[in-house]
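Thread title: Can someone regenerate the structure for this chain?

I was given the following input by a collaborator and told the matching structure tokens would be attached. They weren't. Posting the sequence so someone can regenerate them.
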Amino acid sequence: MKTAFGFVSVLALCLVLQGVIFAADEPENHFLNPSFEEGIVNWRMDQDAGTAANFIVDDKDSIDGDQSALVTVNTAAGWGSQFGQTVIAGENGRTYTFAVLVKSEGGPVTVNLQIERPADPWDRALRSDMFTFQEDEWTELHATFEVINNFPEGWFAYISCIQNKVEYRADMYRLYEGDYTPYEDLAPQLVSASASSLITTWGELKAEH
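Best answer:
Regenerated them for you:
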């Protein structure tokens, strides 16, 4: 019994240390409160003139943690709605990835990922291709880019939507240095098996069509 207890203790310690090592390997996420566990803190919705959009945070559906953001776009005009956060800009000449988990609350929703200077001239560090996602499962949108201009004012990183009468959920925003790593490949203590099975990456989505 004493030997068995010792073996179990050693095994548990190894698993804990393995988790710590995996966590240490995770690149720093530029987003604060990335999965909305602290509610709306740090998040904002920008709207062009004539656009009516809003967001709430609730626990009715989520993929990471207990909460996610529900974004509603009733009317979109001009550049529409931008749901995101202002973060510290990345370093010139380095490669970064912007990724976020999304899910439609109804019909198909079309968006793209953008990162802009939060000041005049409002130029972009990133403007991704357009993505269309559905309501049946969580999909991870992502774009990898190289920084070619300095943005001393920081970055405003967001989901851009110019579609009328749509709702979508967003969870676990990630913005980090390096190439794309799928959410389900993160440290095992951060992603449950059930969550991993619910995710469709944008690459898989494109391959199906």
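Residues 29-207 form a domain with the Jelly Rolls fold (CATH 2.60.120.260).
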